[in-house]
Prior knowledge:
The complex is a heterodimer. Chain A is mostly helical. Chain A has helices at residues 9-22, 31-47, 50-65, 67-71, 80-91, 96-114, 120-123.
Amino acid sequence: xxxxxxxxxxxxxxxxxxxxxxxxxxxxxxxxxxxxxxxxxxxxxxxxxxxxxxxxxxxxxxxxxxxxxxxxxxxxxxxxxxxxxxxxxxxxxxxxxxxxxxxxxxxxxxxxxxxxxxxxxxxxxxxxxxxxxxxxxx
Amino acid sequence: xxxxxxxxxxxxxxxxxxxxxxxxxxxxxxxxxxxxxxxxxxxxxxxxxxxxxxxxxxxxxxxxxxxxxxxxxxxxxxxxxxxxxxxxxxxxxxxxxxxxxxxxxxxxxxxxxxxxxxxxxxxxxxxxxxxxxxxxxxxxxxxxxxxxxxxxxxxxxxxxxxxxxxxxxxxxxxxxxxxxxxxxxxxxxxxxxxxxxxxxxxxxxxxxxxxxxxxxxxxxxxxxxxxxxxxxxxxxxxxxxxxxxxxxxxxxxxxxxxxxxxxxxxxxxxxxxxxxxxxxxxxxxxxxxxxxxxxxxxxxxxxxxxxxxxxxxxxxxxxxxxxxxxxxxxxxxxxxxxxxxxxxxxxxxxxxxxxxxxxxxxxxxxxxxxxxxxxxxxxxxxxxxxxxxxxxxxxxxxxxxxxxxxxxxxxxxxxxxxxxxxxxxxxxxxxxxxxxxxxxxxxxxxxxxxxxxxxxxxxxxxxxxxxxxxxxxxxxxxxxxxxxxxxxxxxxxxxxxxxx
Lengths: 138, 500
């Protein structure tokens, strides 16, 4: 059975590799956390049209292979600094399509990680339906 | 295809549709058949969980991330019984007289809009929070503005029994926000107006529309079985919001004789800045939006507002990624947030179109004046943060991820205009206006000042699509005031419009 309905297993696995560079805490997620992340991202992609899903898959391939031109290796065989450099280049890329594509990918990673209620405590976010007691003044 | 017949059909149940429904309710009480067809679901009270991703998926189109065609801006608008009034913060402002003059719509007078707005401020229990109800995030903004001598005002908001959950944008879990789902729609239903949820109208004509009812997997069941419907009505009011109303009319062929249909879209492009304080502040408890700064409203075309978002929305609004990004996210309890809104010009080229499948496409480009406003607003926000005591800040166009307090005097150079790069910085909109603008005739607009579509006596528009230009403030009260005019026109002409 495929990991995600919206992406091939190859793309789904590579998505998590990129995710670990965008949000380093992803590397520390246990199996349940990774499953929750995958499910959130998969649902979000399934809610989008087929063209968008295909574009995400294509963009992941671009990220994986583009570093070959500069570093002689695919993204998943680079060290952390070089992975950062590749993603930093995409974020600032003069080509608008690549820039906004990276932004979209980043949003998916953040949704998958920070969208998990289980990760709220890591950032110190503790909402309460009755928050009146929390409206204190420092 | 099943058929239903009504005297009046409203398409959409947000600020516009809800207001029209309540104002026409006396007709229902007199025996006229009125239905509201709402695309989104109605959630049970206990379904408002405050879970960020789930609620966004259930209450917003595309989870609040509808992309423009060039993918440089996302839009958040509601898809629910109550429309966007379910997910706004309830800030309730009356449009200033200067803006009414700039609108320059024959028949729209400031005094009239003000009077109608006042009615909704009363109806929605609008008031200002007490000092003791304001959290640090809001107070720091006010105090920072005051130190800089920036003009700052408190937002009146429409809550009743607010418990300070700060979850307004995910649908209030306490039912405190007085949106149309709490006030106007229940009143209309009590008088006999029917509300059909999960019902997407696919085409509209002058006396009928086609709709599809679906089962969404969440929310209460629709009053109608899933399937396709043809609904006839003597009067139809399109209140689906600026994007969906424009798209519906375009898809239905009205663009052929209404050349401005879909055009002159304005969005109040917005972004978020974050300031980190040396100690914890109260931020995610308490109403998120209590103050706004209009110091630069006229001179540089932007507003600053307090805001407080949830972890995912916050994370995607920060530029960058990796260790610095994580570090800032982990400072969540120390974060102060400011939302900036650019007041964008109404340009014919910014518009809603429909693709080959009839789906809405938002063809909107942030021009240089908007990018200038966003730039200046980031500089102003940085100054407010530091004046409020922040130790460092994050500005999307900053030369570095953090700008430290020691560089507070250098924010002009630390946030260069050249770094305001569409597609890199996160820009979003929750104020979508225009596309069905009011005006003189079909050559310059879609409707007259009563919301009546030019050349179609029984077809009206009753939402923010009517705005000929930006409202330059949070728009929902103005939407309700204009919807009130639509309802009045229908009531006044009921004898002619609704005759058998």
